Amino acid sequence: MSQYGIPYMGSKTGIAVDLINMLPRGKRFVDLFGGGFAMSHCALLSGKYESIFYNELNPLVVDLIRKAINGDYNYDKFKPEFVTREMFLELKEKDGYIKYIWSFGNRGESYLFGKDIEKQKQALHNAIVFEDYSEAIKINENFKNIKGNTIKDRRLSCVRIVKQDLKTRCDLQQLQQLERLQQLERLQQLERLQINCGSYLDYKHQDGDAVYCDPPYENTEKYSKDGFNHKEFYEWVATREYPVYFSSYAISDERFFNVYEQSKRVTLSSGNNSNRKVEVLYCNKNDRLTLF
């Protein structure tokens, strides 16, 4: 399965293709709650739209995506230091890379690793990134056999050693997720993309816009400390004179039309990652016939 955007809570990467296929064509794809960039990324690669307008309220997420597209996380110039628990707590509200790549579930709240495995992860990280095997071989001598000319090659070598020789798993999430960021560098020459940091309420409609929203869902975990005003959002959507499509689970406002639905595995919950819910694409217009 293709991966779109950055690792991010509630990402649409698993169903982005289906949603883009369902949404109407237009001159510009407008992603008003852009989040982890999955929908905008998929729309860019689809060739369905002349241009893409990505909008996100969180400045740390916007900065992270801009830096990724700019190539700031390319291994040729970025040798990622291991972020400790203390560094994470100190810097997570200042640096989107630390907040989302080094947090559990990419939620930006708790640290990526448990205290019982943090030192082991640090030892393997330093062996792979900096070829410093001093601490890794104390864990197991087999780690002296990590080979490769690049960081990615050494990561894959480490995974093979753990799986074949130690008969266990080796999840180096921070490096796997960093490599997701690196994929966005291919978009740096793309003039079709506009990135904006702001509220959906500031959006100015243009003829030919296909407007899509992925707001925080009703009755789910909060994406921010202040929560989200669903009543205000529903009123805004209902009063637009143009079609607005938005994703959610079941909603309390009955003014909108269900144009598509799909079962989706819920990943925001840390308790049960196999939980599934029905994801629905709603529209303020009865626009089913314009989708095809």
Into how many domains do the coordinates divide? 2
Report the total helices.
Answer: 10
CA-based shape: elongated
Give the oligomeric state: single chain
Share of helical residues = 25-40%
Distance between the termini: 24 Å
What profile does the largest beta sheet have?
7 strands, mixed
Instruction: List segments where confidence is low: pLDDT < 50 over at least 5 consecutive residues.
Output: 268-273
Structural class of the helix and strand makeup?
A: alpha/beta
The CATH homologous superfamily name of the largest domain equals Vaccinia Virus protein VP39
Order of helices and strands: HEHEHHHHHHHEEHEEE
Beta-strand proportion: 15-25%
The CATH first-level class of the largest domain comes to Alpha Beta
Say how many strands there are: 7
Which architecture of the largest domain per CATH? 3-Layer(aba) Sandwich
Order of the strands making up the biggest sheet: 3-2-1-4-5-7-6
Task: Determine the mean pLDDT.
Answer: 89
User: Remind me, CATH topology of the largest domain?
Assistant: Rossmann fold
